[in-house]
TrEMBL record:
Record protein name field: Crp/Fnr family transcriptional regulator
Keywords linked to the UniProt accession: DNA-binding, Transcription, Transcription regulation
SUPFAM superfamilies from the UniProt entry: cAMP-binding domain-like (SSF51206), Winged helix' DNA-binding domain (SSF46785)
Location of the Cyclic nucleotide-binding domain: 1-105
SMART domains from the UniProt entry: cNMP (SM00100), HTH_CRP (SM00419)
Length: 203
């Protein structure tokens, strides 16, 4: 197993490369994105601590279909294909956990696709905050706070909405007593039940 450190903005793997290792985020976080035909960055996925990528591409000829970039100072652990195969062969429980994690990720991606296709902006934002709560939420005294891994522009990109729409909706959430913005990167959840209800509403 090898360890690698990346500065914020450094590329961990580039779109079109052949994956050579199974990679686990040990510290920090990273984003997976593609560049659209018109030159825009389209964020596909956020990798928090203990998330991983690369397993699927070790056993196919498929090249990595996205670029992975560190969102902050990030440390990763990598296993070569041979070492990864040995790990799976010797520790069946690890294989089961990876399969479960892949199934959970697929479910999250399917939910995200549903969110982009059939949900209004309120629902998309609420769903994303609930998702981020699991990986980036922490209690500050009695308050549940989420340290956002993306800027407001990055969040809007990830959600597929205009930045102005995101700002307007977050302000509305504040006025409704659901959240409180603490600076640019921290969201305090004031009413988790209302936020959860919003994630299921449709137009």
């Amino acid at each position: 197993m090898e360890h690698h450190r990346y500065k914020k903005g450094e590329i961990i793997v580039r779109e079109g490369e052949k994956a050579s290792a199974f990679t686990v985020i040990r510290e920090g976080s990273a984003k997976a994105y593609r560049i659209t035909p018109d030159g825009r960055e389209q964020i596909l996925y956020i990798f928090p601590v203990n998330d991983y990528f690369g397993a699927r591409f070790l056993f196919t000829e498929e090249r990595v279909p996205y670029t992975v970039e560190a969102l902050e100072p990030t440390t990763v652990c990598t296993l070569s294909k041979t070492n990864f195969e040995n790990l799976l062969a010797e520790h069946s429980q690890v294989a089961i956990e990876i399969i479960e994690a892949m199934a959970n990720r697929m479910s999250r991606l399917e939910n995200a696709m549903q969110s982009m296709g059939g949900r209004n902006a309120d629902m998309r934002i609420a769903s994303l905050l609930l998702e981020f709560k699991e990986s980036y939420g922490h209690y500050n005294g009695n308050f549940l706070e989420i340290t956002l891994p993306l800027s407001r522009e990055g969040l809007a990109n990830y959600l597929g909405i205009a930045r102005e729409t995101l700002s307007r909706k977050l302000t509305q959430f504040e006025e409704d007593g659901i959240i409180l913005a603490v600076g640019n990167r921290v969201i305090r959840i004031l009413d988790l039940a209302k936020l959860t209800d919003l994630s299921y509403l449709v137009d």
